[in-house]
């Protein structure tokens, strides 16, 4: 076990969180495996229909007696209906994003759920802490999917939030792919790290094999941020990102850029394997991913690498 405030809060053996990733963990296979290995597996409710989510919640509840979580982006269509469903089958942990915690906090606390809230800045972190959340997931600019608009790096942002709200457990997210990264985040004041891109490259991740191959083949400089003014995302460079960059450089009007931006989807890449024209959302840590590993083996390796990194510090 690696004990931190986070493991004490949620009851895991390790301060390792598998990020809730649309399509990749909109299932039970990946989160069940991660939770079974001692980390916190997270179901991504964002793109899921209610019947599918209900089925996966039942699979999680019957598949493990260890802690697990559901990630809910509060901006998704039908978020209130999702909240109602989750309250019928309360998960041990809820990770909410893209909205205010007062919308859900009291009801989930009454159901016995630990509530973590995703933030991308010091001000929002302080407000969420004041609202009474149990912990924070702090997302830096290196992250895949939706990085913070201010593009502050994880290293700086985690340190700033840890200084501003030292009383609350933090999960660092963005640019972390191994145990050395976990050790670095804990040294900065976090109590755990969230791994997204790294868990894409596992057999249990339910994205298309072409998506996984694209992540494994990427270098650290192979991601792009596109969609300025439309909802910034970080994805692997491909035909879609080249087109968006061209439109932005040409000063194309917002609605024309919106048309191009929405014509490409994460679903195209994740489920259909369109890694040229789809949104291949991944973080800069893709360049640190060189192989596909079973999720349980990956959790064990991260813990081993963490211990090795701490031992190196002790010898320094």
CATH class of the largest domain, named Alpha Beta
- Major β-sheet, in short? 8 strands, parallel
Given the helix and strand composition, which structural class is it? alpha/beta
What is the radius of gyration computed over CA atoms, rounded to a whole number of angstroms? Answer: 18 Å
Helix content: 40-55%
Number of helices: 14
Number of strands: 10
| Architecture per CATH nomenclature, i.e. the level-2 architecture of the largest domain | Alpha-Beta Barrel
Beta content: 5-15%
Total number of domains: 2
Written description of the protein model:
- The model has no long low-confidence stretch (mean pLDDT 96).
- The strands form 2 sheets. The chain has an 8-stranded parallel β-sheet with strand order 1-8-7-6-5-4-3-2. A two-stranded antiparallel sheet has the order 9-10.
- It is built from 14 helices and 10 strands.
- The chain has 316 residues and is of the alpha/beta class.
- Helix 8 crosses helix 14.
- The chain is globular and about 50 Å long.
């Amino acid at each position: 076990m690696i004990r931190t405030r986070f493991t004490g809060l949620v009851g895991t053996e390790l301060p390792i969180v598998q990020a809730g990733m649309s399509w990749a963990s909109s299932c039970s296979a990946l989160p069940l495996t991660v939770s079974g290995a001692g980390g916190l597996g997270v179901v991504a409710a964002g793109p899921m229909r209610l019947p599918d989510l209900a089925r996966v919640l039942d699979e999680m509840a019957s598949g493990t007696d260890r802690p697990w979580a559901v990630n809910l982006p509060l901006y998704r269509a039908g978020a209130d209906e999702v909240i109602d469903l989750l309250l019928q089958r309360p998960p041990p942990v809820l990770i909410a994003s893209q909205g205010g915690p007062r919308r859900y906090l009291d009801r989930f606390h009454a159901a016995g759920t630990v509530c973590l809230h995703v933030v991308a800045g010091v001000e929002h972190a302080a407000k969420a802490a004041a609202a009474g959340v149990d912990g924070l997931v702090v997302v830096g600019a290196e992250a895949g999917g939706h990085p913070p608009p201010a593009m502050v790096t994880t290293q700086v942002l985690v340190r700033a939030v840890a200084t501003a709200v030292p009383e609350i457990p933090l999960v660092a997210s963005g640019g972390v792919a191994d145990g050395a990264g976990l050790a670095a985040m804990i040294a900065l004041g976090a109590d755990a790290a969230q791994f997204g891109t790294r868990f894409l490259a596992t057999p249990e991740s339910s994205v298309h094999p072409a998506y996984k191959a694209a992540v494994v083949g990427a270098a650290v400089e192979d991601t792009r941020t596109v969609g300025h003014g439309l909802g910034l995302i970080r994805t692997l460079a491909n035909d879609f990102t080249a087109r968006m960059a061209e439109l932005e450089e040409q000063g194309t009007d917002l609605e024309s850029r919106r048309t191009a931006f929405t014509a490409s989807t994460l679903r195209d890449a994740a489920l259909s394997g369109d890694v040229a024209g789809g949104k291949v959302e991944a973080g800069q840590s893709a360049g640190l991913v060189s192989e596909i590993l079973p999720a349980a083996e990956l959790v064990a390796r991260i813990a081993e690498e963490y211990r090795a990194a701490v031992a190196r510090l002790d010898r320094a």
